[in-house]
């Protein structure tokens, strides 16, 4: 969900609780399904930095909520801001139009907000307006999709697309190796194949599988939509009469993938999802689905971005670190959610 080099691409993995706790003590343009509700950001443990401080206004700009993960981004940001009596949250109208987002960010600069959290539709195309904010003395917290110019943001926070692929590859590789599989048929359903975020996910997946002596048998993209997920999965199921494992990059499009699988009556394989949606977690929790795991890319990163913006605007650092200032870059880990740990993560899942 840009310069599409960072996205979600829906939990913070090893940092899903860790990042939230750390910050509080001081988370793809993907067109798709209709907007839906999402879990509120985790509160995290209280710390000295949570005590009221200097009043600050935080501006917020993100794409339109036409996808479950993006909808959850906005909800997490607003929820995090609402936890602080010293924060005034100033969001602008979400949009998928580049020029409209630029104008919206310019309005926040003119309003002289104390910090800006921006998830750009396109990092390259919004780079200049982000730089204008920084030049005006407004620190920019670049959320997920990275601006190419480091002078255009104070801090970047986002997920690890390559790490998502690695996590999925290890889960599938280990499970197949343990079962004694030989030359397994491994199918990969991507989001949008041309995006760097997708390519990063695929590379991580291939690299991890290689450590088990396995490789991807078939790969096709499903455009991050439920409809394409259904169609692509149906085609792959028809083309491969036997499949051992499937990795679907995106839990939102995974609704369509699972629908095609159920329609075909196929269950000889297991599947891994991507992002950490609530519906995917419920499938995993049921124990009766081919979906046995999902690898995280959580929209709770938006809550962490708001917390970082507050700390930066108040000239505070992260109290769990020795340094006096918030780091320049924070990459959140991707964790594997299975039936064994799904109860821990379900409250953080977003609705597709």
List the keywords.
elongated, Rossmann fold, SBP_2_dom, TAT_signal, alpha/beta, 6-stranded parallel beta sheet, 352 residues, 12 strands, Sugar ABC transporter substrate-binding protein, disordered N terminus
Could you please describe the fold and organization of this structure?
This protein is α/β, with parallel strands linked by helices and 352 residues long. The chain has 2 domains: 15-158 and 299-332, Response regulator (Rossmann fold, 3-Layer(aba) Sandwich); 161-296, Rossmann fold (3-Layer(aba) Sandwich), CATH 3.40.50. The chain is built from 11 helices and 12 strands. It has helices spanning 15-25, 68-81, 98-110, 123-135, 161-178, 196-210, 226-239, 251-264, 278-286, 301-313, 342-345, and strands spanning 56-61, 87-91, 115-118, 140-143, 155-158, 186-190, 218-221, 245-248, 270-275, 291-296, 329-331, 336-337. The strands form 2 sheets. It has a 6-stranded parallel beta sheet, sandwiched between helices. A 6-stranded mixed beta sheet has the order 7-6-8-9-10-12, sandwiched between helices. Helix 8 links the parallel strand 8 and strand 9. Helix 3 runs parallel beside helix 4. The longest helix has 18 residues, at 161-178. Residues 1-46 have low confidence and may be disordered.
* Cα gyration radius (Å): 20 Å
Enter the CATH topology name of the largest domain: Rossmann fold
- How many DSSP E strands? 12
Global shape = elongated
Order of helices and strands: HEHEHEHEEHEHEHEHEHEHEEH
User: What is the CATH-assigned architecture of the largest domain?
Assistant: 3-Layer(aba) Sandwich
- Secondary-structure-based class equals alpha/beta
Reported for the largest beta sheet, the result is:
6 strands, parallel
Enumerate the spans where pLDDT stays under 50 for 5 or more consecutive residues: 1-46
Q: Biggest sheet, strands in spatial order?
A: 2-1-3-4-5-11
Q: Give the % helix.
A: 25-40%
Q: What's the level 1 CATH class of the largest domain? A: Alpha Beta
Q: Give the CA-CA distance, first to last residue.
A: 14 Å
Mean pLDDT: 88
Number of helical runs?
11
Name the beta content range: 15-25%
Overall tally of domains: 2
CATH homologous group name of the largest domain = Response regulator
Pfam families: Peripla_BP_4 (PF13407)
Protein name: Sugar ABC transporter substrate-binding protein
Organism: Microbispora corallina
Keywords: Signal
């Amino acid at each position: 969900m840009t310069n599409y080099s960072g996205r979600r691409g829906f939990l913070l993995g090893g940092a899903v609780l860790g990042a939230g706790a750390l910050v509080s003590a001081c988370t793809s343009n993907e067109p798709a399904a209709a907007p839906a509700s999402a879990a509120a950001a985790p509160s995290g443990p209280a710390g000295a930095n949570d005590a009221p401080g200097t009043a600050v206004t935080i501006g917020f700009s993100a794409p339109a909520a036409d996808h479950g993960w993006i909808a959850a981004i906005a909800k997490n940001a607003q929820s995090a801001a609402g936890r602080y009596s010293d924060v005034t949250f100033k969001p602008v109208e979400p949009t998928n139009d580049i020029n409209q987002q630029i104008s919206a960010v310019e309005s926040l600069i003119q309003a002289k907000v104390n910090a800006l959290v921006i998830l750009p539709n396109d990092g390259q195309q919004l780079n200049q307006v982000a730089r204008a904010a920084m030049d005006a003395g407004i620190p920019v917290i670049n959320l997920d999709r990275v601006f190419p110019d480091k002078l255009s943001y104070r801090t970047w926070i986002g997920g690890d697309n390559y790490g998502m692929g690695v996590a999925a590859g290890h889960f599938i590789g280990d499970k197949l190796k343990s079962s004694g599989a030989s030359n397994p048929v491994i199918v990969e359903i991507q989001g949008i194949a041309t995006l760097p975020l997708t390519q990063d996910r695929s590379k991580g997946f291939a690299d991890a599988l290689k450590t088990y002596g396995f490789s991807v048998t078939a790969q096709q993209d499903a455009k991050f939509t439920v409809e394409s997920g259904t169609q692509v999965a149906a085609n792959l199921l028809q083309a491969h009469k036997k499949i051992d494992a499937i990795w679907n990059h995106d839990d939102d499009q995974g609704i369509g993938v699972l629908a095609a699988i159920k329609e075909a009556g196929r269950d000889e394989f297991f599947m891994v999802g991507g992002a950490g949606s609530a519906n995917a977690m419920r499938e995993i929790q049921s124990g009766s689905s081919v979906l046995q795991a999902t690898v995280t890319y959580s929209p709770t990163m938006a809550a962490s971005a708001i917390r970082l913006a507050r700390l930066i605007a108040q000239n505070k650092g992260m109290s769990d670190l020795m340094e006096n200032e918030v780091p320049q870059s924070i990459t959140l880990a991707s964790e594997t959610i299975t039936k064994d740990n799904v109860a821990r993560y379900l409250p953080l899942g977003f609705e597709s």
